[in-house]
Design goal:
alpha+beta; binds magnesium ion; 145 residues; binds adenosine-5'-triphosphate
Length: 145
């Protein structure tokens, strides 16, 4: 399926870029006239994915984060968010609610669950040592209502 519109973003894994990334994606999707809830859901899911790249993928290093967003016929939005960080050994385990490798108690282990519940679809792919990619999908149905 060919997208009717697409955009790419590459930025550094600095936490100050998290709000930039979610606002940029929201602005790209705005043409579909999403309502407040739909746009908040997308922003939250993008934030969770980008935060994961920053805190888990690259840990204390600075690396590049890649976002590729596409809009398809029927107001389907597909957003891919990738890093070239440490990767995930056991994806199924990582996606379990409340599972976290964070040992300081700062993280709840709910990022993937949030992405899954706020979007229509979530796909995670990863190779240890190579990086992680998440693909998020949502169809905008509200037309601003
Ligand atoms: N981009 C990534 N690179 C490497 N590991 C990741 C990445 N994204 C997630 N993970 C692994 O998957 C686990 C679960 O991620 P999830 O976002 O669900 O929870 P969390 O980030 O630990 O906590 P929270 O999102 O609630 O702050 C993480 O603890 C981490 O081990
Ligand atoms: Mg997380």
């Amino acid at each position: 399926m060919k997208p009717v519109n697409e955009m790419k973003l590459i930025f550094e894994s600095r936490s100050c870029n998290e709000s930039f990334a979610r606002s940029a994606v929201a602005a790209f999707v705005a043409v579909l006239d999403p309502n407040f809830e739909e746009i908040s859901d997308i922003k939250t899911a993008v934030s969770e994915a980008v935060t994961n790249c920053i805190v888990h993928g690259y840990k204390n290093d600075i690396g590049k984060i890649y976002i590729h967003a596409k809009i398809f016929e029927g107001a389907l939005v597909r957003i891919s968010i990738r890093d070239r960080g440490c990767g995930i050994r056991d994806i199924r385990k990582a996606m379990e609610p409340l599972y976290t490798t964070c040992e300081t108690g700062e993280r709840a282990g709910l990022g993937f669950s949030i992405m899954e519940s706020f979007m229509d679809k979530l796909k995670v792919s990863s190779k240890p040592g190579k990086g992680t990619g998440v693909t998020l999908e949502k169809t905008i149905v509200s037309k601003g209502k």
